[in-house]
């Protein structure tokens, strides 16, 4: 939900790999923790669908929660060490929710190429891991992080940041860039 230029870049990349590009727009409740922002997460489906079409999507799949998690649903994809540290250590069950819904989408899509952003690098690695482990007929492509003009990674949640928080958040890409420069030198 609340798609942006980073998502459009994913769609354009997918177009390089396939003639038919399906985009899922689904705010997945199983990847949100009890104190996270599921209820207030931005949902702009009409605008999202327009952006998808403009970027080259052939289809927008925007299922309801009841479609993705039918009555009596109890099956989850359990993830291991790849999901344990970093973000996973602070968001219990987050990556299980991600892996479960993505596995369901892959089951619906069948053999395909799926494009994910490297902004959520741990998520990308979890998806690659379970795709390999479960022998899913899916090729995973990771796309570089798309950034705002000031260097902040594009995110639907950037709208939550105050001007001060946004300024502070810029320390992350600046610090990483400086570390990479120092390492290269």
Note down, in words, how this protein is organized.
This protein is mainly alpha-helical and about 180 residues long. Helix content is about 45%, strand content about 10%. It has eight helices and four strands. It has a two-stranded parallel ribbon with strand order 1-2. Strands 3-4 form a two-stranded parallel ribbon. It is globular.
Number of helices: 8
Q: Proportion of β residues? A: 5-15%
- The succession of helices and strands, N to C, reads HEHEHHHEHEHH
Helix content: 40-55%
Q: Provide the residue-averaged pLDDT.
A: 95
- Largest sheet, order of strands side by side? 1-2
CA-atom Rg in angstroms: 17 Å
Main sheet summary: 2 strands, parallel
Shape annotation: globular
Helix and strand composition category: mainly alpha
What separation lies between the terminal Cα atoms? 40 Å
Can you count the beta strands? 4
